[in-house]
TrEMBL record:
<dbReference type="InterPro" id="IPR036046">
    <property type="entry name" value="Acylphosphatase-like_dom_sf"/>
</dbReference>
<feature type="active site">
    <location>
        <position position="20"/>
    </location>
</feature>
<protein>
    <recommendedName>
        <fullName>Acylphosphatase</fullName>
        <ecNumber>3.6.1.7</ecNumber>
    </recommendedName>
</protein>
<dbReference type="InterPro" id="IPR017968">
    <property type="entry name" value="Acylphosphatase_CS"/>
</dbReference>
<dbReference type="InterPro" id="IPR001792">
    <property type="entry name" value="Acylphosphatase-like_dom"/>
</dbReference>
<dbReference type="Pfam" id="PF00708">
    <property type="entry name" value="Acylphosphatase"/>
</dbReference>
<dbReference type="InterPro" id="IPR020456">
    <property type="entry name" value="Acylphosphatase"/>
</dbReference>
<feature type="domain" description="Acylphosphatase-like">
    <location>
        <begin position="5"/>
        <end position="92"/>
    </location>
</feature>
<feature type="active site">
    <location>
        <position position="38"/>
    </location>
</feature>
<comment type="similarity">
    <text>Belongs to the acylphosphatase family.</text>
</comment>
<dbReference type="GO" id="GO:0003998">
    <property type="term" value="F:acylphosphatase activity"/>
</dbReference>
<keyword id="KW-0378">Hydrolase</keyword>
């Protein structure tokens, strides 16, 4: 299966609810690399890279997020696979 990256922007109540932590857990459990970070406007941004099926699984999870989150919208776009990423990181 092809490897892809998806760049996502998540809006709603997604900061201060462990969204980045749980996104990293989901990504690592699915063998993804990339990163997740909070944005100054209150949104969360993520780059998910790996096998397409696993990326799509975590991308779908972003629409719900962790229990305390209230996701309003997820906008995402596909990108070329970035093989320089070695792990999934939370960026501060």
């Amino acid at each position: 299966m092809a490897k892809i990256c998806v760049h996502a922007r998540i809006t709603g109540r997604v900061q201060g609810v462990w969204f980045r932590h749980f996104t990293r857990e989901q990504a690592e459990a699915n063998g993804l690399t990339g990163w997740v970070r909070n944005l100054p406007d209150g949104c969360v941004e993520a780059l998910l890279c790996g096998e397409e099926k696993a990326v799509r699984h975590v991308e779908a999870w972003l629409n719900t997020g962790p229990e305390l989150a209230n996701v309003a919208d997820v906008s995402s776009d596909d990108q070329s696979f970035d093989d320089s990423l070695q792990a999934f990181e939370i960026i501060d």
